[in-house]
Amino acid sequence: MPAALHSYTARRIAQTVLVVILTYVLVFFILFILPGDPIQQQIENPQNPIPAADAKILLQYYHVDRSGLDQFWIAFRRLVQGDLGYSLTTGKPVASLILQAIPQTLALASTALVFTGVIAFVIALAAAFAPSSVIRGIARALPGAFLATPSFLVGFLLLQLFSFQLGWVSAIRDEGFKSVILPALALAIAVSGPIAQVLIQGLNRAYGEPFVTVLRARGLGEARIVLGHVLRNAAIPTVTLLGLTLGELLAGSVVTETIFSRTGIGFLTQQAVREQDAPVILAVVMLVSTVFALTVLITDLIYPLIDPRIAARPIPATADQASD
Amino acid sequence: MTEQLEYSAIPRRRLPTLPPLLRGLSVADALALGFAGLLLVAVIAPQLLTPYDPLVPDPGATLQAPSLAHPFGTDYLGRDLLSRVIHGTWRTIAGSLVAVMIGLFGGIVLGIASAYFGKTVDAIIGRAVDVLLSIPGLLLSMVIVVSLGFGALNVAIAVGIASVAVFTRLMRSEVLTVKELGFVEASFHLGESRWGVLRRHILPNAYGSVLALTALQFGAAILWIASLSFLGYGAAPPDPEWGLLVAEGREYVVSSPWMVFLPSLVVVASVLAISHISHLLRERVA
Prior knowledge:
Helix content of chain B: 55-70%
Helix content of chain A: over 70%
Largest interface: A-B, 55 and 50 residues
Structural class of chain A: mainly alpha
Number of strands of chain A: 0
Number of helices of chain A: 13
Oligomer: heterodimer
Strand content of chain B: under 5%
Shape of chain B: elongated
Shape of chain A: flat
Number of strands of chain B: 0
Distance between the termini of chain B: 23 Å
Distance between the termini of chain A: 34 Å
CATH superfamily of one domain in chain B: MetI-like
Radius of gyration of chain B: 23 Å
Largest sheet of chain B: none
CATH topology of one domain in chain B: MetI-like fold
Order of helices and strands of chain B: HHHHHHHHHHH
CATH class of one domain in chain B: Mainly Alpha
Radius of gyration of chain A: 24 Å
């Protein structure tokens, strides 16, 4: 068994590294090699023309005159050395732009992740065990409603209610943690739908299993059965959604940070796409997809530890619930 | 149920029998179908639904609150907002349709190729799907839009390409599942060609779940297209488009909140209606 486990672990790690490298290749070719040279376009940009001297440096740095494959190798070798290139609009190094933006987004995404968990658990518990059938019905409908709601609507509703009507938190000024709460809530509502759905299914399945009858026969109270045993069993499959959720949180921050005037990764992405700043876009996409791939890898590898019933084997389609 | 009983209690007038697909619809089903019908009319003939021109400003009636004359109010140039929403429907809905068609077609071709040719082809397509799925859909569409250039059609194409992977994976697993079934194996042994089996047995069996995913993905495409237009990568002003209307209204959200909320609610209603119809289809067809 340990030998098989090791080879499985090694295979999964190799697979993850391959996917990350291939993702870089794909995004690089979409952005730099396909028709519509972003560097030449930026130099000739009528709104923000780059001085001839700077343009020459840019053209030399990116080796625009060489073939696509050469350009790729040059960029790849620089990447390995930790050089992510320079922004085409501001001329700043991409690495420092990303590093500056990460703390804002880290605070937002981690808070949103906690909110997501709380929202999903509350909805699922209400959908499965609320005493009133009306509340159960509403809770069951909520994940679908969340999935149908564009994140900008949630953002504007929260802003309207808490910033403009109640005046609890400024819509523009950064007030530390207080300013994180609303955007994190908006993000959490947008991504909690699938998790709540998986939890509801899990609760219903776990509640029908024989161990519940055994526990009841042993005299355990209903609350202890649900919170101590059924919930634990139902929560295990949501672990496989973690990678997907993190990816969605980071991608969703593009809209949320724009609405709440925060200057994190999402805002950086939004600016970069608007100005077709290819090196910045490439770096952001690689950051997000690497976080996703690593999270999926880690959840796959530790899943047998969380759920001992599952031997170390590929967990069927980690991202399958993406579309559900 | 109760409706059927009431009808049968009136013997004089016989209602024409409905096709089995429509029998026993609930109120929610009817609402969803009705809203989808309304969307269809707004796409094909928007002028039937509103008397106002979506592009003609009225300097005497700017930023009016919703009223009987202007149910959604007017925008900062005095254009009727409901009319702009109605005339903008086709950009979002037809765009989503284009996106779903691209995803569906790409997914069917790649999924069948992956399941049918096995080994090398399967490995290559499998890795490609892994790569595409490792980038969140909204972000992947942004990358493609940067390469294609901004615009309503390009956003639709980008969202379509970004959803190919999901369809490919579903199609591949459907084909593989059906391929292993006894009767399919039997028809191989009876000398039916690969394409014959595909056409006769595999595609009809995969139909239901692919249809359900298509409807689901249609709703997601609406949200993505609205979000990308909201960020300013899609349709350009003064063209009306749902996400763009929200972005335009954003400047006035404090004084005229309806400019943001009413177009957004239309987006929600559309996605809800389509996802409800997707459930209905899954129940009745699959």
